[in-house]
Amino acid sequence: MAGIEFDRQAFIPSTTPQGRSAIQLLIPLITVSAIGLVAYVGYKIYTVNEHNNEVIAVNSQVQQLEQQLAEMQKRIDSLERHRKAAMAEVNSPAPSSTNTVSATANRNTRAEYRIDTASKFPAQTKVATPPQVQATPSVSSSVFASEEIAGELAANHTAWEATTNRLADVVGVVGTQQGELSETRDALNQLLAQTHRKAISFELDRGRSRVSVGPVSLQLKSADSKGQHYTVCVIFNKEKCIELRDRALNEVVVFVVAKNSPPLELVATKILRDQITGYLEVPSAMQ
User: Fold this and answer.
1) What angle do CA 12, 18, 19 make, to 5 degrees?
2) SS3 label, residue 252
3) From the CB of residue 193, how many other CB atoms can be counted at a distance below 10 Å?
4) Using an 8 Å Cβ cutoff, are 198 and 284 in contact?
5) Fold for the domain defined by 19-93+140-195
6) Enclosing H/E stretch for 282
7) Distance (Å, whole) CA 146 – CA 90
8) Cβ–Cβ under 8 Å, residues 254 and 265
9) pTM (global) more than 0.70
10) pLDDT in tens, the chain (287 residues)
C-alpha cells in the first residue's frame, strides 16, 4: 500500500511579524491626519488673504475720505473769501445825502441876471427845483447775503466735523484689523513651525542610564516582549520626569514637556526583552 503524501508546510504556523500589521493600520490614520492638517493650513492662508482684501478696501475708503476733506476745505476757503468781501462792502461808508444837497445848492447859487421889460408886471424868474437826492442803497441785502454765507459756513463746518469723526472711526477699525491680521499671521507661523518635524531614532536598554534624544532624555523602566508593552521615563529640565506607562508597540504617544511648547511624539517600533527601539518626532524649532 503506497504511503499517503501531504504538504507539511500547511501545518506550519505563519510567522508574520505583528509590527507590520500594526503599521498597516496606522498608515490610514497618518494619511487622514496629514490631509486634515493640510486643509487647516489652507484655511488659515485663505483667512489671511481675506483680511488683506478687507484692509485694501478700507485703505481705499480712507483715501476717498481724504479727497472729500480736501475738496470741502477748498470750498470753505472760497466761502470765507466771499464772506470777507461782503463784510467789507457793508462796512464801507455810503455817500452822504447832506453832501449831495450842499453840492446842488452850490450849483444853484450862481449869479442870476434880471432883465427889465416894458411890461408893468415884473418879470418872473423860474425857480430851479433842486434835483431829487437819490436814496442810498439799502444794506439789508448785503446783511442777508452775509448771514446766508455764515449759515453755509456753519453747515460745512458741521459736515467737516462729521467727516473727521468718521475718518477717525475708519482709522480705528483699520488698526484693529491690522492687529487681528498680525495675530493670525503669528498663529499660522506657529502652526507651520509645528508641521515641520524631524524623527530622531533611539535604542534603550533596561538598567542603562538616561539617553539624550533631541531636547529630552529617555530612560527605559520596563519592557514586556510577550505583551509588547513598555514603560519609559521622559526627563526634561534635568530633573523633571514624565513616565509613559504600559505603552504598546507602534503606539503614537503625544506629550508636552513645557507650557506653550509644541508637542512631541514617541513611537516604539521594536520591543525585545529589556530593550526597545523607536524614534522621537521633534519640531524643527526645538532642535
Assistant:
1) 140
2) coil
3) 14
4) yes
5) Helix Hairpins (1.10.287)
6) strand 275-283
7) 9
8) yes
9) no
10) 455 665 555 555 555 555 556 677 778 888 888 888 888 888 888 888 887 888 788 888 888 888 888 888 888 888 888 888 877 776 665 544 445 545 454 555 555 545 454 444 455 555 455 445 444 445 556 666 677 787 888 888 888 888 888 888 887 777 788 888 888 887 777 776 666 788 999 999 988 888 999 889 999 999 999 999 999 999 988 778 889 999 999 999 999 888 888 889 999 999 998 999 999 999 877 76
Identify the residue whose cell numbers are 510577550.
226
C-alpha to C-alpha distance for 100 and 132, rounded to whole angstroms: 10
Q: Helix 18-91 vs helix 140-195: angle between axes, to the nearest 10 degrees?
A: 170
Asked whether 269 and 277 are in contact (CB, 8 A), the reply is yes
Place of cell 501545518: 11
Question: Among candidates 113, 100, 109, 102, which has minimal Cα distance to 128?
Answer: 109
Residues β-bridged to residue 217: 212, 235
262: nearest Cα among 280, 241, 240, 247: 280
